[in-house]
Task: structure prediction
Amino acid sequence: MNQEGIRDRLVSKFGEDVVSDATMFRDQLCVTVTKDKIREICRFLRDEPDLAFNFLSFVGAVDNYPRTPRFEVVYQLNSLRHNHRFRIKVRVEEAEGGLGSVDSVVDVWPTADWHERETAEMYGITFNDHPDPRKLLLPEHWTVFPLRKDFPLEGTDDTPDLPPQTN
Amino acid sequence: MSEQVRRMEDFESEIMELNLGPHHPSTHGVFRAIVELDGETVVNVTPYLGYLHRGYEKTCENKHYHQVIPLTERCDYMGASSNSLVFCLTVEKILDVEVPERAQVIRVMFAELSRIFSHLFWLGTHAHDVGAMTPLFYNLREREEIMNLFELTAGGRLMPNYLRIGGVVQDLADGFVERLRAFTEHFDRRVDEYETLLTKNAIYMDRTQGVGVLPLNDAIALGASGPMIRGSGLAWDIRKSEPYCGYETYDFNVAVENGCDIYARYLVRIKEMRESNRILKQALEKLPEGPIRSRQAGVIFPPQEEIYTRMESLIHHFMLVVEGLKPPVGEYYQCIESPRGELGCYLVSDGGPRPYRLKWRAPAFVNLESLTLMSKGNLFADLIAILSSVDIVLAEVDR
Result:
């Protein structure tokens, strides 16, 4: 099925409002869907026989600082049965005095586990109902989010474990 | 007397937690796992990653596009050219640049040489992990030949850093084609030699058959790719399913085995080396004359000799070095079949000279997620064999 067909299946199942944005670039369609329904959408994409997105390539995030909503969480899907790919996104706003959050899709694709843990620690996005929300690559005592755009390459004063400056 | 006999059930046994790594020879890097053991049997494995985390993606966001290429090769240094290939393909897609035929064939050569290179070293170290010392020395012999080929043309031995956006950096060195042909002619016999050491070796078969079983459904759910999923019976190879670099014009088979165990992954990688050799032979036949980089002023580096003779080329070269190339706004996900599986690059361009976001879909990272499932219920000694059958490169896992 082509990518427009997949988008139309989403719209006919969940209604017009579910797709808030869609961009086509170099034959790859990227569809932004509403955050609240992400788990149902993923389950639908995986379980419908003509879609059958049984393989999740990765989950990642993009920081659009200083624009709002600040974050986009990206899901790159692949169907090993039909050999087609599709990419969906949700927009995540940084919550007032806390972290933005989105539902975890680990129960849809178990491989999302590590991807979500990495995204969580790098961007400060909470994945609700994640079965194992520890940090993955960073030490537990880190409180900074290094892949955010307002985090400088050389670190900040409250970045732990940095070697002493030698200039 | 009979009162004094104590039965096993009377003893209380409890789960023992054992720390494996971060410095353990079998991890081939720095990888730590907490292993829960019931006697000798593995009950659970909890991996701890990040000892080699270098902030690769963050660094890339702060580099010009051309400066990213050497960094990519430092992710998976065993299949170095595959990494620069996927990055160049992604940027070329965003730029909408066509790569000349000759460069495509050269890229295929380098990608397949890195696949053989990676599988050879995997085979040696994996055999070593299960107790066979000998294969490593044979594997290193052929690996050395490939390194000499890399060195001849690109300078670098482990990480050639040979690919550029739009093509490759310079033409093949004199004598490369002849030496590569000589290599392809004797390599199949060398694979036969490796097989005599392991394929029917009773000890090796005992250690690997039925061990580290990864059923196909779990492999798909856990995102496993490459030899991991082909060893579980799915003939999925991105070179076939979504061809790039003209792979659709080569005649080769997808190696697939149904065993789902370590032995199946071993057989898949052995077959893949033979298939890669077939591709190399065809690439040598095919290799056309022509330019090695596409021409697009202000986007692709002009040919080296023109920089010294044409003013415009000098200016374009200078501007590209100083300001970097600026692809249009957009995003693209490109994936290729690396020696370890689906190697993907998701690139977001904001129109500036640096990638706005670069997400690296590292196959070793994802394949490692299956470790816990494969190890449960096996013996502790088998955990080492299972870990090595995943073929992890820790630099790629931690990025």
About this structure: Residues 101-129 of chain B form the longest helix (29 residues). Residues 213 and 319 of chain B are 54 Å apart (CA to CA).
